[in-house]
């Protein structure tokens, strides 16, 4: 393994192609941390944003006007503002208003750290789009199907959970796929509030080593692979949900 | 100083020779033709380069840049840069000259042409709450420490002292995060921190540690611009000799630094 790492040092000395995160142990640690943070942030945000989307779409069909209004205000607010502005807003504006807790270094710090704010902000941002995406799927479910369910005595929640949503899911996967890909790419914005994700750590490395071109190439490839994995998983899910005769 | 005299003579010779017989187009000709010099300066680094209340960029470095423009008889355009893009701006020709609080480092000399002698110098220190009672650099171990993206001492602070660096794009964000309690300290240039500790808004904060890495700052031109390089070298020597740097420090409320004093006496 050591010889493999050393090969990159030789590559740098011979060709000037500098990939310090391969031969420098400290920089390797940084890149691995960054990669892990990006994966963690993406996975958590994908999960929460899908949950927000499902719950939001259900609330949107609520018989109460107030509930529908609240969901719509939420969508407009998060969909119509830039995600970077939201991150800054949460971290710098809301962050100082929330309660502070004693931390392990003898001071007090806000209850939610930068990673927490990134999760909250990005989940709600993507969630706003997901609500609309799920709504489009729900509206594609034939009215007669729901009427049949009502006639059989299903409650509103039961209809949504057991009939509408499973059918809607099959319709929305392509557009959901789109939005989740966007979400994973948007996690790079978290570096603005110092979440040590992949772009942040790469930025630290290219500042120390002045190897901007190499790091840009690496980032491009890294995100291509990361998003590729997500798309592959989504396609796999899409195929496994296939029902003969529905939506095909 | 014998050597300095010889050097100065050589530089004067270069300048006169180059102005007399400009045979090929270089950046000086470009600037003169354009009638404006674009200088990369900081816009968030009080008092070295920051935005005045009317939005214009002012400070010690913008004034130094203005000297260069006056000498060339052209107008000046300040381009705000940050630590993580300043060398790239110069490389890509977005700026002709960069005076942006940059520490002179050997690996940076491979990318841009840093002009000798150094025009300024400063070291690294931290701004932290007095109540934390920090005494040694090793006290930062395991604590989150705010920093600026692209600063060279981020790596050293985390590698040597075990601090967890939380780096932001600009100083405003870092100061806000420090105030909000997201970090235990803010690691930055001592020259800038001194100004903050005097600010009533930052009462209760101190610069408790011994300054480390006292390192010279370098202004830079593009690699290969030898004529401009030689001209800037002459200008820096004149700044030091005439006490211009010391005057600017006084004007902008900085205690005269030992480096500026020594260079003036030389």
Observed structural traits:
heterodimer; A: 248 residues; mainly alpha; MetI-like fold; two-stranded antiparallel sheet; B: 266 residues; D-Maltodextrin-Binding Protein, domain 2; six-stranded mixed β-sheet
How far apart the termini of chain A lie comes to 49 Å
Q: State the CATH architecture of chain A.
A: Orthogonal Bundle
The largest sheet of chain A has its strands arranged as 1-2
CATH topology of the largest domain in chain B, which one? D-Maltodextrin-Binding Protein, domain 2
Number of strands of chain A: 2
The gross shape of chain B turns out to be globular
Spans of chain A with pLDDT under 50 lasting ≥5 residues? none
Q: Topology, pairings included?
A:
The complex is a heterodimer of chains A (248) and B (266).
Chain A: H1 2-15, H2 20-23, H3 25-60, H4 65-79, H5 83-94, E1 100-102, E2 108-110, H6 114-139, H7 143-151, H8 156-186, H9 198-209, H10 212-240
Antiparallel strand pairs in A: 1-2
Chain B: H1 2-20, H2 27-34, E1 36-42, E2 44-45, E3 49-51, E4 57-58, H3 60-72, E5 75-81, H4 86-91, E6 97-98, H5 106-109, E7 113-114, E8 120-129, E9 144-148, H6 153-161, E10 164-168, H7 171-180, E11 185-189, H8 190-197, E12 205-206, E13 212-217, E14 220-221, H9 226-242, H10 244-251, H11 258-265
Parallel strand pairs in B: 1-5, 1-6, 9-10, 9-11
Antiparallel strand pairs in B: 2-3, 3-4, 6-14, 7-14, 8-11, 8-12, 8-13
């Amino acid at each position: 393994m050591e010889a493999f790492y050393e090969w990159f040092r030789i590559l740098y000395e011979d060709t000037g192609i500098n990939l310090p995160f391969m031969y420098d142990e400290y920089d390797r640690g940084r890149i691995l941390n960054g990669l892990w943070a990006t994966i963690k942030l993406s996975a958590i945000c994908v999960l929460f944003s899908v949950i927000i989307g499902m719950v939001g779409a259900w609330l949107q069909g609520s018989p109460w006007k107030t509930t529908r209004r609240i969901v719509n205000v939420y969508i407009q607010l998060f969909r119509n503002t830039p995600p970077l502005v939201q991150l800054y807003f949460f971290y710098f504006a809301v962050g100082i208003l929330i309660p502070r807790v004693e931390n392990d270094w003898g001071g007090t710090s806000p209850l939610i750290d930068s990673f927490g704010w990134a999760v909250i902000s990005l989940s709600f941002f993507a969630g706003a789009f997901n609500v609309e995406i799920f709504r489009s799927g729900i509206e594609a479910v034939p009215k007669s199907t729901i009427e049949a369910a009502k006639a059989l005595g299903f409650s509103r929640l039961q209809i949504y959970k057991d009939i509408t949503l499973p059918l809607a899911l099959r319709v929305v996967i392509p557009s959901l796929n789109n939005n989740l890909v966007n979400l994973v790419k948007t996690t790079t914005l978290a570096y603005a509030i110092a979440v040590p994700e992949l772009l942040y750590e790469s930025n630290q490395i290219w500042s120390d080593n002045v190897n901007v071109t190499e790091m840009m190439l690496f980032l491009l490839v890294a995100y291509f692979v990361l998003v590729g994995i997500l798309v592959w998983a989504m396609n796999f899910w899409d195929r496994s949900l296939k029902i003969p005769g529905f939506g095909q | 100083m014998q050597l300095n005299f010889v050097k100065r003579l050589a530089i004067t010779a270069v300048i006169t020779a180059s102005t007399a017989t400009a045979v090929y187009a270089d950046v000086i000709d470009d600037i003169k033709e354009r009638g404006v010099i674009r200088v990369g300066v900081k816009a968030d680094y009080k008092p070295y380069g920051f935005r005045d209340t009317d939005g214009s960029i002012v400070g010690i470095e913008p004034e130094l840049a203005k000297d260069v423009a006056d000498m060339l008889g052209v107008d000046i355009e300040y381009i705000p840069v940050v630590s993580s893009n300043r060398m790239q701006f110069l490389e890509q020709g977005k700026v002709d000259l960069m005076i942006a609080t940059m520490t002179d480092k050997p690996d940076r000399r491979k990318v841009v042409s840093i002009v000798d002698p150094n025009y300024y110098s400063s070291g690294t220190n931290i701004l932290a709450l007095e109540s934390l009672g920090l005494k040694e650099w090793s006290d930062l171990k395991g604590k989150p420490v705010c920093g600026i993206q692209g600063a060279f001492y981020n790596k050293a602070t985390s590698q040597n002292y075990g601090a967890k660096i939380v780096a932001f794009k600009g100083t405003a964000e870092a100061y806000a995060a420090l105030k909000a309690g997201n970090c235990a300290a803010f690691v930055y240039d001592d020259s800038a921190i001194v100004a903050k500790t005097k600010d009533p808004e930052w009462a209760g904060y101190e610069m408790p540690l011994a300054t480390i890495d006292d390192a010279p700052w370098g202004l830079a031109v593009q690699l290969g611009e030898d004529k401009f390089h030689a001209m800037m070298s002459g200008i820096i020597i004149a700044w030091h000799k005439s006490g211009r740097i010391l005057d600017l420090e006084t004007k902008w409320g900085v205690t005269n630094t030992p480096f500026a004093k020594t260079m003036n006496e030389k």
